[in-house]
Amino acid sequence: MNIKRNILLNPGPATTTDTVKMAQVVPDICPREKEFAGMMKSLRADLLKVAHAPADKYTSVLFCGSGTINIDICLNSLLPEGKKVLVVNNGAYSTRAVEICQYYGLPHIDLKSSVYEQADLNAVAQTLDANPDVALVYTTHHETGTGVLNPIREIGALAHQHGAIFVVDTTSSLGMIPFDIEADNVDFCMASAQKGLMAMTGLSFIIGNEEEIRKSKDYPKRSYYCNLYLQYDFFERTGEMHFTPPVQTIYATRQALKEYFEVGEEAKFARHRRVFEAIHKGLDELGFKDVIRRDIQSGLVVSVLYPNDPNWNFERVHDYCYEHGFTIYPGKISTTNTFRLCSLGTIDTPDIEAFFQTLREALIHEGIQIPIRY
Ligand SMILES: *Cc1c(COP(=O)(O)O)cnc(C)c1O
Question: Would you place residue 1 in the very low, low, confident or very high pLDDT band (cuts 50, 70, 90)?
Fold first, then answer.
């Protein structure tokens, strides 16, 4: 089968290999069969390896849903009665965590700081000193809205010094930038299959400290479908998801993990880095400016400033690129007009060179001045 290859420069879902696409085409199977449970067992073990999580201390729990389900589950399941969440918030994804706290009525502190900068460690330390009832510190590793990478190891150390667990949204970094759950002082991390692992949408997973999950058995139950202990316990007893799993996505994820380990994490990290450098080179050549300091960029998302050109219209440039097989993505910074180019997915330098050729054509087609004016 010949499947058209699109280059996705949006922040997930990512461009996948044909072998991952085809892994979804399998004989019909009831997911309650032992064969399927066995597959999920090895998949859960492989996910631990991606996070370098020792199997005697950590476990992974699978859910059917997009990545946001993980944020919802961790927050509603891991907060003991009478305790508070501290959200270290410098972007749109941590803001989502704050909204979840609001929806569940969870006591929380929204420690907001500039979306253009890394989280402020002094502010985190001061807030923890002043609020001994914080039991859960939460942040986002890579703020996908801006491309800022946060100093999670340092935040995790502060959380632990203050007796709190540390939950990190690693949805847009796991499997793409080096991460070691213990060395990074993380108790719970999370992702979904269509980002770093380059599989399909519909499967999300939380990797975390098993003892903390067991403790949470006695915490207030705030959701039925989205409770971490319930799903963990069901997996431990039966090897299955409590409710129907995303069957085909699980087959694709198994194949994607196989390819992840074959390539090896170092080579994969290096490829993402290479693509990121190629994006910057292409932007520099056209005269585009990015908005985040280079030394705090994740290497996975570049936020690009809209030109000051009367002919600039993001939608039209997007549509031109899209028709030519390249997907670019709007920004997520409320105060600045930006668009994003991302280095997720199974793409490499020649794809980026081909993209910039198309982008140049789009700019000429739209009558936008090159080099870009600001
Ligand atoms: C993609 C992403 C999510 C999940 O978003 P969904 O739309 O639910 O898939 C969560 N956190 C971060 C940092 C992300 O990049």
Answer: confident
